Sequence to fold (256 residues):
Amino acid sequence: MRNNVRALLVLAVIGLGIAHATDAPEDVQAVFSRAAELVNSGHYAQALPLLKDLASQLPQSPGVFWNLGLAAAQSGDERLALRAYSRYHELMPDERRGSYKLIQTYQALGRLKERDRVREQLIAYRNALPSNERDQLTFYVRDQFDVAGQHFMVLEYFEPQSPMRLYYKFTSVDGNHKAIYNFTLTSGDTETTAVRQLGQIGAHDRLYGLDKNEDGKSTLYGLMKSLPSYDEVRSRVIDAVTDAVAGKPIPKLSLQ
Fold:
């Protein structure tokens, strides 16, 4: 898991693009290479002015707008990131990473209707793939956010599978992008059957649990008898993290 998280968080610096790498003057290519190096090394503020200039000079270059989006987002300029990722998506409509970044950026801006629209388009895109390709695309990075001095990356799973259906994974990562711990929203077949037999949920309902997983131990933070929305789960995770930092005890659990 640690290696997978690291791979997902490494900044994917995309080149100028085949169509424009050969046409661009050597000095422009050199500026882009310098900007890409700055992004890759975490010097986002230094990369921003270079990438802004390149965006005006190379409006058809996907690589410029991808890197501009990365630098802007990491510098806290989500509006600029949205403009950059929107342009990248226009230039590369079949490249799903553009959809991932739009979903993340709309989330950061609180523009949830637009976020949900892009997510629906992503699901439709996946559903239209040949079955072998669709089966390989099991999750995507839905969100990234900071809370209580911690950085979280969130995976959403397209088709949670039995016997333990995994819907979301919120992973806290350190400065080297290594996983520290995670929260997961799951629904187990065995647990669901037991609760049905006790009459605590309906015959067609399921039991959902929010767990914190750290150092090989799991702690239950919530039990639900209907699938919560992403925003509800996100809010629960944020509350759990801030409460833990403040030293507050885990709230008493009840089936909700």
Notes: Residues 163 and 190 are 8 Å apart (CA to CA).
